[in-house]
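AAA family ATPase, Arenimonas fontis. Tokens?
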Amino acid sequence: MYLEHYGLREPPFSITPDPRFVFLSERHRDALAHLLFGIGQGGGGGFVQLTGEVGTGKTTLCRLLLERLPEKTRIALVLNPRQNPVELLETICEELRIDVAGGRGSLKALVDALNRFLLDAYAEGLRVVLVIDEAQDLSVEALEQVRLLTNLETPTQKLLQVLLLGQPELRDLLARDDLRQLAQRITARYHLTPLDAEETEAYLRHRWAVAGGKRFPFTKLAVKRIHQHSGGVPRLINIVAERALLAGYVHEQVQVGERWVEQAAREALAPRLSRLPRPRLGVLVAIALAALLALLWQLPRRDVAEPAPAAAPQDHNGVPPRIAADPVPYLPGADLPARILAAGPTPRPAWAQLLGLWAVRAGEATAAEAEACPPILSPGLFCLRGRASLDKLVALGRPALLRLEAPGGEAWAVLLGADALRVRLWLGGGRFDTDRVAMDGYWRGDYAAIWRGPAFLGAAVPAGSSGPAVDWVLDRLRDRVGMAGPEAGPAVLDASATVAVRRLQAMHGLAADGVIGPETLLALSSTDGEGPTLRRSLD
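Tokens:
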């Protein structure tokens, strides 16, 4: 209806889950990392728990998780958990395509068939994952039966891994004393909270860009009101934003201000008011009418024939819309090869740009010295080379050098930012945005990066070591993954620290091997909040 009016290809705020519109806030990335760690090699199997209020993105995260599981994974997805133990086992067997024609209705026959399947899957190198949505609706008996299924194990792992998705009531259910055995088997748990005000704006801008929008329509105050009315819940954000866009379209406005958001919230969220008890509702209506009459009485009288002067359109906060002082140009993907060839193969300009982003002084390192990328450029200044995916670099969150290859030549670019559709690069003397898919066609994963840390750090921190470097590592692990501090004695990299390192590595897309090498040190340094970071919203 309004797509042409706003210059969109498709509706940006549909409440139907669509992987193309996925927006991962910091807490969503943390949740995904915890789930991957719990279901992956770090957790050793058992149960993984994800809770959150309605509309906070649990199902979306579950889909992302399933997409990132290894190819040799069999998945049983239970969407209706209101079943008795026998019905639940029948559903699981159907999802895994286990033939139980002769065993329906028999708990023992179903369990035996499922156990045989799990043993055969393990022999074939398959991983089996059971996902139960709306798990807060499971009966205690059904939960206990699922726990018994996870008793089948090898010396190193469970043969069935279970992901429980549910509303906050699931946490209360699992806290019951008669379910303590199950609770003790949960290897990873995460509670999703709503988006904050800054994330709400980033969420709106992200979906607008994916839908093909160019000029963001919502004013600053409108975004603030959307966050206030929705409480940061993505589903409610979509509902209010969609209604506000429709109101702007009806009134032929391309900029959507506070007025249309307030109207949208009244219309879309009105059922909240209608659920008030009738006596309270009557009191509120009476108060509202009295206030309206008092306001009308105080307004100055105006001749009916005298039209009110037209007010200049402006945001309700009295501040004109902010205009970017230095817009970043867009480079079509088809023009990227020519830009690569024009930049030339020498990496020195890109290194100079990267050193400048880190405010490296002349006495610390030069671009010529950085080209060799020794692990320690100077005390407290580190360098690393490697191969990575773009998602991994985004998770690390630092600018990086990328070696781009086009037919006839290559060049080094500086990665400055990335979102779902575009990347921001510095190449050949200037910045520009281009299509993420286009850049992927000219980049094979080679990258280089620099970072700052304490002068006492080396290129790695060996397991079992102690000293200032270990103290620095453990401090950041406590901040980032909530690792408990040592009870007494000197801090050392023990087994619990190794588990925390693996969690941090999974959160940043690194191999969860527990080894604290250059990439892990870079990930740890990003928790300090100092130095340049990648832009994650390219508007």
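The longest helix spans residues 278-298.
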